[in-house]
């Protein structure tokens, strides 16, 4: 045995915090955004939709909630229908007991369903906390009721050791060959975790609490058996617990994977009714120079075609650096885990109470290796103290797949899909504790968060994520119900550039539109997609593919409202630059680069124009993303027909914010102009003025007839029409806010595709802020 020495905790002590640039979701959708529609199910009075079970045929989703189990019909992708419901409350006696034990009858003394597994074709097995008295029951699928005894009462079983007492405690359960493997808290106090195997005909097996194979605070997040893998004879448990093997000044949480063998039947004299194959090891998820991500939140296992598997885990940091509490996704191969379990053991040196590498003699067959045949008492005695492996499991490439600051991921699920080129991509869906869903892909250049979707009105943790690959739908469980959301919506990418910049493996540009490749049956060899790098050039420019302008009018939560004011007039125009992509740079350019005296660019890139004679012209906001430049908004500020015709600039935009200084300045200028104009008009154009004053109202047709063809001409009329993108000639909605003079001060003039214009809500702002940087949002403001 090695002498006592200090074990080192290398990674933990290197805490130089280098804050790298954070990964940003490219698009963000707020709840209710029509681009990412959510279908929801909820039932009055039913809360806490915590536990999911998908039926084998994929047509039914069983959900365990509070005091209720529901069966949901999900074969129609557009709806979720209630198919069956089992109310399952604790008995009044149990509730009274629960309250007597100082638990809340408002939040805790209910039956929170925590286990829902398919026992056989006709029955489910379910367990709930049952008012701090864990209880299990069978569900008959024929009529979707609890199996009853002769007296008609539900046939209940003791659930201690299978299901937690306290609804706040995490647990995991998996059914393998008709036996139920569970990881949970075994007692009311919540300080005795347990991994056990029940049901079936064999001996019930448990972890030994006296030998402290698990630390008192172990919290289970997932368990797996991989039926067609190299390791089908084992069951894996993922959990977090306080580590004992490190000398550390404070409580150190570590993430663990433990495994047991399916063929374990317990010991004879030693380890009777206990696991004889229980081993555990540390999972390491860290990036160099940063706090390690020690706290595992959830794991998803993705079986590989070669018989292996990859475990995707979401981790958070136990400590925070500054204000950052970060999350990471680490992927561990089954091989790496097996390697750690085949490596050296650790053992506790009782003299100095330190965990050290075991360097004694090895045994054959190796203890804990699922070898068949009874184990010797010697081997079993060895297993009592050698349950912790020396080596930790490191992630693939020795680093996290993805690191996100200021976010806590609580759930993950992964979908493997093929791109147009046939390459396999693993699309990761992560749920946060604030109710956001992140969809990410890892490609050559690193991790990329394709989109972020706000799922709930009020921030709350996502309780469950379940992906149906066949349906292409993700189910989300939360406190008030179940949501379903399609894995993608390719039609939000209306231009070739956006379709490719998105780097969404499900979407490709078929040379006309962005389409979901999983739904395409034709030859896709000339479709455009670049998941690796997201670089639109040169494909998008080829074959005369024209960027399409967006043609939808949508509301934005932050969209400023335009109202018609008549008078007072405000000579300040705010031109929003929709910044849908968080990965792009946005910049303004305008016809007369010199005349920027009256221009202010706000933090959100809105261009504020104080309208003067020389501000007329074209204003364009351009996005630059990944080296690809494209316009996202285009405005034309024109000034009537000829020079000198500018009589009284009437601006129609009411500001939500105040620009008092500009307002005063311009008001003074305008008053002077107006005075001169009125004087001129009175003396020189008396008749004309008289005629004009008869023009009243805001009729569109009238404005149309009069100003048609003129509004697009800039003030310095000698110039040709202002530069326009190709999309304008095709189907660009061209919004104009035009007036010829005082007489039309109350008119807003709209041309082109009226469906693309929402005059009340400034369509330019709203459409784009909602996640689409459609090409060539175009508007003109006339003065
Ligand atoms: C996809 O996005 C388009 C455009 O925003 C929208 O009209 C459509 O309803 C969306 N479809 C879904 C299923 O969310
Ligand atoms: C909880 O107990 C209080 C007092 O005993 C009672 O007023 C209240 O209605 C109970 N709440 C529920 C949900 O049973
Ligand atoms: C399924 O399990 C239930 C409960 O153990 C049992 O009563 C039933 O006979 C089983 N059904 C089949 C088809 O094995
Ligand atoms: C449900 O069906 C089973 C047989 O499949 C039957 O024994 C039981 O009585 C039925 N329960 C009810 C409530 O109808
Ligand atoms: C698809 O079209 C390309 C050329 O356009 C051709 O080379 C390829 O064989 C086609 N693939 C299939 C599966 O038809
Ligand atoms: C836009 O918002 C306004 C109110 O702010 C509402 O009346 C209108 O129906 C909304 N339009 C759409 C398309 O949601
Ligand atoms: C803005 O810049 C782009 C290219 O950089 C150019 O094509 C466009 O004409 C410019 N717009 C204006 C109004 O100058
Ligand atoms: C945005 O601008 C910054 C600073 O000018 C630059 O470092 C960055 O690379 C630009 N990003 C893109 C996507 O162009």
Task: Provide tags for this entry.
single chain; 783 residues; mainly beta; ligand-binding face of the semaphorins, domain 2; Immunoglobulin-like; five-stranded mixed sheet; five-stranded antiparallel sheet; 11% helix; 31% strand; binds 2-acetamido-2-deoxy-beta-D-glucopyranose; signal; semaphorin receptor binding
Q: Indicate the percent of residues in helices.
A: 10-25%
User: Which stretches are poorly predicted, pLDDT < 50 over at least 5 residues?
Assistant: 6-18, 542-569, 640-664, 689-778
> Helices and strands: which structural class?
mainly beta
Reported by name, the CATH topology of the domain at 572-782 is Immunoglobulin-like
CATH class (first level) name of the domain at 572-782: Mainly Beta
Strand content: 25-35%
Distance between the termini: 90 Å
Find the count of extended strands (DSSP E, 2+ residues): 42
* Major β-sheet strand ordering: 1-29-28-27-26
Mean pLDDT reading: 77
For the record, what is the CATH homologous superfamily label of the domain at 572-782? Immunoglobulins
Small molecules (ligands, ions, cofactors) in the structure: 2-acetamido-2-deoxy-beta-D-glucopyranose
Q: Which architecture name of the domain at 572-782 does CATH use?
A: Sandwich
Radius of gyration: 33 Å
Q: Characterize the largest beta sheet: strand count, sense, and whether it forms a barrel.
A: 5 strands, mixed
**DSSP helix count?**
10
Overall description:
The chain is mainly beta. Among the domains are: 490-544, ligand-binding face of the semaphorins, domain 2, CATH 3.30.1680.10; 572-782, Immunoglobulins (Immunoglobulin-like, Sandwich). The chain has ten helices and 42 strands. The strands form eleven sheets. It has a five-stranded mixed beta sheet with strand order 1-29-28-27-26, with no helix packed on it. The longest helix is centred in the last third of the chain and has 25 residues, at 660-684. The chain is globular. One 2-acetamido-2-deoxy-beta-D-glucopyranose (NAG) binds next to loops. The chain crosses the membrane at residues 659-683. This is Semaphorin-4A. Residues 1-20 form the signal peptide.
